[in-house]
Amino acid sequence: MLSKSSHLFDQVHDRLWDLIIKGEVQPGERLKDVEWAGKLGVSRTPVREAMRKLQQEGVLLPLSAGGYQVKNVSNRDMEELYTCRAALEQLATLEASRRLTQADADNLTRILALTDAALSRNEIDEIFRLNSEFHKAIFEFAANNHLIFLWESLNKLVLFYRSALLNKVKQRPELSDAYLKRLAAKQDAHRSIVKAMVEKRHTTAAELMEAHVLASIQELAQSS
């Protein structure tokens, strides 16, 4: 049962989002507000509001018969999203590179070191988390509020798509080795981006980031 000490709508939304990201609620699964109200021990109103927000975020689809369905991710969805993401991240990297301070560079280097350690231990969940932290840091260092707003609007779907892939890997151990190799390649790309930023090769850093994100389109399509 959820706490009554804060807004139930936010709690219900975060709980449903967490279950979807963890794969406990699967793509294609149908959600009814009355059922989830019972499971969470709340009225139907905050559940309806939470599901409506998840629809707006692109995670749930409304059903004509009532209720919602967790979206199944198509290759076209991924291509469209990552094409937009690549453009945003290219610009963010360009601005972040131009503004880069020593503290920023140290933080990116810290993330790279932690990712190396996680890769050595095959800790897929931790690598996933650090990958998100790396990209978030780039946008923060760009210090462009409009870019951050646009990125945050896309990032929910990025996490949703990547989590769907991660959950599939967890369910099929034979995919783990190939997935870890791709994660190692991503780490190499991150390292090259940081090197270019530190060396003040701003345009190169931005181009490397764009290529890095666009490469994910093929990776996600092959794994879907």
UniProtKB/TrEMBL annotation:
Q: Which SMART domains match?
A: FCD, HTH_GNTR
Q: Which domain of life is it from?
A: Bacteria
User: Is Ligase tagged as a keyword?
Assistant: no
Q: Where is the HTH gntR-type domain?
A: 6-73
Query: Which Pfam families did the record assign?
Result: FCD, GntR
Q: Which UniProt keywords apply?
A: DNA-binding, Transcription, Transcription regulation
Q: Which Gene3D superfamilies does this chain map to?
A: GntR ligand-binding domain-like, Winged helix-like DNA-binding domain superfamily/Winged helix DNA-binding domain
A single GO molecular function term of this UniProt record: sequence-specific DNA binding
Q: Where in this chain does the entry annotate a coiled-coil region?
A: none
Q: PANTHER family attached here?
A: GLUCONATE OPERON TRANSCRIPTIONAL REPRESSOR, TRANSCRIPTIONAL REGULATOR, GNTR FAMILY
Q: What protein name applies here?
A: HTH-type transcriptional repressor RspR
> What species does this protein belong to?
Pandoraea iniqua
- Which gene underlies this protein? rspR_6
